[in-house]
Amino acid sequence: MEILEPLDITGWEGPFPPEAVARGAAALEEGKVLYAPRLRFELSEAERRFLSPAYLDSKSKNISFRPDQCVVQGTRCQGDDRQDLLLMLKRFFSQARALLTGLCPTYRDRLTAGLTSFRPAQVEGRKTSWRKDDTRLHVDAFPSRPLQGQRILRVFANVNPAGTVRLWRIGEHFEQVAATLVPHIRPPLPGSSWLLQHLKIIKGRRTPYDHFMLNIHDRMKADEQYQANVSQTEVPFPAGAAWACFTDSVSHAAMSGQFAFEQTFYLPVAAMQDPGRSPLRVLERLVGHPLA
Ligand SMILES: O=C(O)CCC(=O)C(=O)O
Ligand SMILES: [Fe+2]
Questions:
Q1: pTM of this structure
Q2: If exposure means fewest CB atoms within 10 Å of the residue's CB, which of 65, 96, 130, 219 is most exposed?
Q3: Which ranges of 15-154 does DSSP label H, i.e. alpha helix?
Q4: Does 99 have pLDDT greater than 80?
Q5: Average pLDDT score over residue span 236-259
């Protein structure tokens, strides 16, 4: 299968060509990456000052924006700098949302916005624990935010001013990943989800679905043999390009690059054109019972 679904568009707001709209949601749900090589996220002259890791605070690798609360985090800036960062991130959020609602009209009222992030740090050579190391192939699953089956749909843009690519590896299709790993995963311990929620370790109930997704995420990242030997392709995303995919099913690793934007959305399984392709339904078929 081709991994990339090319999109010849240059603007974030629709209307988009009917062929692109006809394929948008279907391509995403098949596990493809919508790839717009000429869809540039424009920064103003003044905003270009933010193309430096110096604006990060010491604990963060990203500067993030919460569209629902309109706050910025991850930066040491105050005053005008902080406000300008907020406006830049907010604009990325609006454009990413316009892109997805234009390309996937059936998702329009069903997308919930998660975090917006600006990623000014160099990916290569960053020191982290294996679990947080996104240079290892993985599907996304968040330990502190149970999704209970909801999809993770993310939009990325490479804004590197020197023209450096953002290099990803893309691995097997989720069906294959799950078929290989699920037989090794033990079901959650009775009471563990209640405990995590009531100790306020996580927001909301960690369902058996979340348990399986976190296990898959961890098993993929922890296994050096898997990382090296699984069938995979290198995908360089050029500066000035944007791309989108369901990162809970597209197995991905970010190997190198600096200066990108990313917007997360959540989508209920029922809002998909083909819910049978969701990781929730794939896992349920494998284990033979409901997981939500
Ligand atoms: O920063 C990137 O290019 C992708 C990193 C990643 O794995 C993620 O955000 O889920
Ligand atoms: Fe990821």
A1: 0.97
A2: 130
A3: 18-29, 79-103
A4: yes
A5: 98
Domain CATH for 265 = 2.60.120
User: CB-based contacts of 245: which residues, under 8 Å, 6+ apart?
Assistant: 28, 31, 32, 33, 34, 153, 154, 252
Sheet holding 260-267, edge to edge: 4-6, 33-36, 242-246, 151-158, 260-267, 112-119, 63-66, 71-73
Which residues, other chains included, contact 190 with Cβ-Cβ below 8 Å and sequence gap of 6+? none
Query: How sure is the predictor about 95, in pLDDT bands with cuts at 50, 70 and 90?
Result: very high
Residues in the chain, overall count: 292
- Residue owning tokens 């690793």: 253
Q: Is the CB–ligand 1 distance for residue 169 below 6 Å?
A: no
Place of tokens 């989508």: 267
Q: Is 91 close to ligand 1, i.e. is its CB under 6 Å away?
A: no
Q: How many domains is the chain built from?
A: 1
Ligand nearest the Cα of residue 254 is 1
Residue 136 Cβ contacting ligand 1 at under 6 Å: no
Residue 292 lies in a domain: no
Asked whether 284 lines ligand 1 (CB < 6 A), one says no
CB-ligand 1 contact for 166 (6 Å cutoff): yes
User: 140 and 115 in contact (C-beta within 8 Å)?
Assistant: no
Which structural domain range is residue 56 located in? 4-287
pLDDT, tens digit, for every residue of 135-175?
999 999 999 999 999 999 999 999 999 999 999 999 999 99
Please tell me the distance between residue 168's alpha carbon and the centre of ligand 1 in angstroms: 9
Categorize the per-residue pLDDT at 254 as very low, low, confident or very high, splitting at 50, 70 and 90.
very high
CA of 73 to the centre of ligand 1 (A): 18
Q: Which of 98, 126, 229 is nearest to 171 (CA)?
A: 229
